């Protein structure tokens, strides 16, 4: 094989820097036991079709170099003693995946591996763990890869080209006003707000990289949080409930998810500030005033947002390219107890509407790209990491298959994506799949020892919002 070289994208350069080194962990629950020979056979036939999975990083981390792949070296099937595990399948899987965060991927070969755990949990008969370096691709890319390897459970001959809805970016709404003068004034006003919002966002971005830090809360990680082992937890909720709230409140799915996250983090922090009331179940407002709590939120930069067949994403001039083609915005969360759960939704809708009326995401990506050319990759990565360290968390939402899918006769129960290597104590990922929404948390257990309570608060916040709408006759 010829050692062809290809440069890394700007975000890929950031993710493989020594001060960051992000890895993605995708946990997949299966409804049947996993047959390792089936997995190996599929990999032997498909790895060669995907350049990233048969390429390694150059010594300076700037280019991909094609190489030979021994698939057996990338598939791990550990010996599992059923008696040792007993009834605690979840505990074994949680511990196993956490241990993966202790050991880096081997940079002398392609940066991925697959772990097959034939352990029964409450949601699955077996669990597969795909670990990839984040420089290989973002969440959109990884889901496209999963789709390329699976088929609809109800129709094994269907390769899922229509299993994910085709998404397009929202166009600027037409004013459709008869009064042209008013239309002109509205356009000028909107443009001025866009410029002003962008300037403010860029000043805050630079300030956060240099000195502006979030308030120290029980969810804020310390300086060593990036190198600490992480643990992963997930909770599955109804996607239909989220859509009901979305329609009733005239919002987007992302608006609802941000509202749920704000509500659950507020409730969790309130408990942490006064644990003595935990036993009797009463939680008065113990939150200090003026908490600065910000979350990075990933933004897909592809001009075509819908999922494309893997071959189309790999095409050089594709508008839905494979790789790390995303940026981020910074959301100022409103941390506080609200007697009306719908207030969290109204706040999130306002925050998201303000952020959509800004070029923050596009300019942040451009700054990273220019920074690597002017300051070098390592300095740019350190500045990026300072922004991550000075904020509290990050949230991401990826659209998954609408119908149940299977991998070569193995039906999939859930898909839970997450990451580690980040300089934050909490990451929140959302992924929709077959009528459900999976909420995945990556936590530093030295900072957040009870992540299951965060999952509980996420679920309870969703239920409270739905109940409030039902009570008011809005559903």
From TrEMBL:
<dbReference type="GO" id="GO:0005886">
    <property type="term" value="C:plasma membrane"/>
</dbReference>
<comment type="pathway">
    <text>Lipid metabolism.</text>
</comment>
<dbReference type="GO" id="GO:0019432">
    <property type="term" value="P:triglyceride biosynthetic process"/>
</dbReference>
<dbReference type="InterPro" id="IPR023213">
    <property type="entry name" value="CAT-like_dom_sf"/>
</dbReference>
<dbReference type="Pfam" id="PF03007">
    <property type="entry name" value="WS_DGAT_cat"/>
</dbReference>
<comment type="similarity">
    <text>In the N-terminal section; belongs to the long-chain O-acyltransferase family.</text>
</comment>
<protein>
    <submittedName>
        <fullName>Uncharacterized protein</fullName>
    </submittedName>
</protein>
<dbReference type="GO" id="GO:0004144">
    <property type="term" value="F:diacylglycerol O-acyltransferase activity"/>
</dbReference>
<comment type="pathway">
    <text>Glycerolipid metabolism; triacylglycerol biosynthesis.</text>
</comment>
<keyword id="KW-0808">Transferase</keyword>
<dbReference type="GO" id="GO:0005789">
    <property type="term" value="C:endoplasmic reticulum membrane"/>
</dbReference>
<dbReference type="InterPro" id="IPR045034">
    <property type="entry name" value="O-acyltransferase_WSD1-like"/>
</dbReference>
<dbReference type="InterPro" id="IPR004255">
    <property type="entry name" value="O-acyltransferase_WSD1_N"/>
</dbReference>
<keyword id="KW-0256">Endoplasmic reticulum</keyword>
<feature type="domain" description="O-acyltransferase WSD1 C-terminal">
    <location>
        <begin position="322"/>
        <end position="466"/>
    </location>
</feature>
<dbReference type="GO" id="GO:0047196">
    <property type="term" value="F:long-chain-alcohol O-fatty-acyltransferase activity"/>
</dbReference>
<feature type="domain" description="O-acyltransferase WSD1-like N-terminal">
    <location>
        <begin position="60"/>
        <end position="256"/>
    </location>
</feature>
<dbReference type="Pfam" id="PF06974">
    <property type="entry name" value="WS_DGAT_C"/>
</dbReference>
<dbReference type="InterPro" id="IPR009721">
    <property type="entry name" value="O-acyltransferase_WSD1_C"/>
</dbReference>
<keyword id="KW-0012">Acyltransferase</keyword>
């Amino acid at each position: 094989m010829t050692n062809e070289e290809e440069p890394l994208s700007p975000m890929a350069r950031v993710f493989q820097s020594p001060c960051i080194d992000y890895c993605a962990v995708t946990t997949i629950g299966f409804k049947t036991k996993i047959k390792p020979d089936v997995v190996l056979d599929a990999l032997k036939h498909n790895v060669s079709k995907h350049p990233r999975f048969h390429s390694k990083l150059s010594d300076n981390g700037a280019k991909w170099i094609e190489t030979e792949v021994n698939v057996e070296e990338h598939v791990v099937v550990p010996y599992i003693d059923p008696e040792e595990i007993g009834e605690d399948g979840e505990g074994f899987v949680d511990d196993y995946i956490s241990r993966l965060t202790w050991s880096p991927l081997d940079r002398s070969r392609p940066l991925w591996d697959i772990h097959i755990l034939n352990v029964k949990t409450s949601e699955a008969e077996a669990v597969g763990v795909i670990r990839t370096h984040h420089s290989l691709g973002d969440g959109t890319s990884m889901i496209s890869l999963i789709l390329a390897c699976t088929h609809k459970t109800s129709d094994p001959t269907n390769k899922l080209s229509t299993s994910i809805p085709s998404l397009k970016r929202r166009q600027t709404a037409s004013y459709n006003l008869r009064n042209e003068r008013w239309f002109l004034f509205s356009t000028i006003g909107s443009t001025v707000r866009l410029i002003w919002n962008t300037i403010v966002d860029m000043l805050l971005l630079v300030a956060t990289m240099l000195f502006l830090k979030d308030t120290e809360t029980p969810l804020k990680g310390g300086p060593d949080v990036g190198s600490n082992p992480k643990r992963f937890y997930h909770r599955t909720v109804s996607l239909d409930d989220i859509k009901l709230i979305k329609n009733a409140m005239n919002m987007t799915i992302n608006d609802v998810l941000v509202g749920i996250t704000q509500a659950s983090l507020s409730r969790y922090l309130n408990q942490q500030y006064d644990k003595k009331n935990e036993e009797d179940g009463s939680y008065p407002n113990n939150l200090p005033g003026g908490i600065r709590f910000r979350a990075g939120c990933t933004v897909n930069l592809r001009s075509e947002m819908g999922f494309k067949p893997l071959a189309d994403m790999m095409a050089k001039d594709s508008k839905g390219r494979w790789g790390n083609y995303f940026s981020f915005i910074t959301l100022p969360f409103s941390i506080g107890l609200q007697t009306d759960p719908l207030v969290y939704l109204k706040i999130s809708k306002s925050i998201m509407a303000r952020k959509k009326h800004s070029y923050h995401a596009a300019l942040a990506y451009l700054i990273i790209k220019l920074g690597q050319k002017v300051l070098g990759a390592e300095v740019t990565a350190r500045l990026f990491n300072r922004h991550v360290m000075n904020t509290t968390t990050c949230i991401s939402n990826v659209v998954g298959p609408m119908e149940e899918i299977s991998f070569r006769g193995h039906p999939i129960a859930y898909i839970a994506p997450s990451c580690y290597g980040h300089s934050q104590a909490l990451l929140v990922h959302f992924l929709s799949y077959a009528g459900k929404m999976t909420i995945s948390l990556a936590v530093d257990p030295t900072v957040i020892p009870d992540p299951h309570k965060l999952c509980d608060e996420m679920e309870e916040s969703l239920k409270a919002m739905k109940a409030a709408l039902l009570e008011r006759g809005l559903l």
